[in-house]
Amino acid sequence: MKKSEELRRTINALKTDVEKLQAAEQYDDAAAKAKELEEAINQYNAAKAIEKVQGLDVTNNPLEPENKNAAVTANLKNRIFNKLVLGRPLTEEETAAYNTAGTPGLVEASPEKGGYVVPEEQMNTVYEYRRQMVSLKPYCNITPVAYLSGRMPAMGTETGVLTEFDELNEIKQSDFDFEQKTYNVKTYGDIIPVSNQLLADNDVNIMLIIGRRFTRKAVNTENSSILSLLKALSATTITDYKGIVKAIFKTLDPTIGLSAKIFTNQTGLDYLAELDDAQKRPLLTPDLANPQQLLLRGHQIVSLPDSLLTVEGQIPFFVGSMSDAVAFYDRKGVEVAVSTEAGFTRYATYIRAIERYDVKMLDKDAIALLQIANA
Question: Is the dihedral of CA 213, 216, 219, 220 positive or negative?
Fold first, then answer.
């Protein structure tokens, strides 16, 4: 086994230890274990660097950039995509690449249904923008779907046990019935005017131009859809933070409570941040593995803008496991199409970017809506 593989397992084990110690409020021990984790990460990076050059004759064979051909292919795919979207003719080389069976991101063209699927090379720009925003989608149970509507099997809270049976005994019908969730994917999009000069280069990254605006609107729309679903839950009024702790340990199923997260808005985070324990220490503690992340009794807090999550006169807290509560049916891919006629008088091209998804409640008992009066 490679040294890096051993260290990777050590890192995973140490990270688990840190999280357990934090949950048990053994912060001194957690801090010491976090130092071990940091040292293990440094050793892992060093081991990977050594393995990368091990066995190579660096003197006679200088290191060349990896995946040189892949970089050329990525650039070619990017250029083909741009030309298809902008209605420009392909060269002989580009046509051959476009017609190659199994070429990722190039054979999924559907201009009559909304545009062309953005290739992975340009989607990486969107993924990078998403990481800079607070998105609820990654916390949901993301289910890729190939059709605009359909049914998916789902399982809520399961309290049954295995059936003891001997050979020739039949299993009851109820033992293998699954609830069916119906989804109906909807289309969401934005139309963005872009200067023709910016699109003159066939190798331009279109998503670099429109990605930030589209991603911000996409994340806001996804968050709004998910929160609309969660706000339909019956709210429980609590008087202080102890109501949150009680929900984690008593209201929720124990298996849900162990990994429960706390979703609130800026006002809710500010409320929790001002609380102290009996020793006058802040009630919220930083995650030692990620100091920018705050925890309440070892449970992660996710804060959304007040403009997105607001309840009149109340501070909302959604407590539980969103991955068990909400299904996000994702018709993977962003599609783009253009119109030069619409922006003729502005010397601009209008780019339409769309995504398709649906959200459904899987298990309403996996998450609780709590509210504290906003004094």
Answer: negative
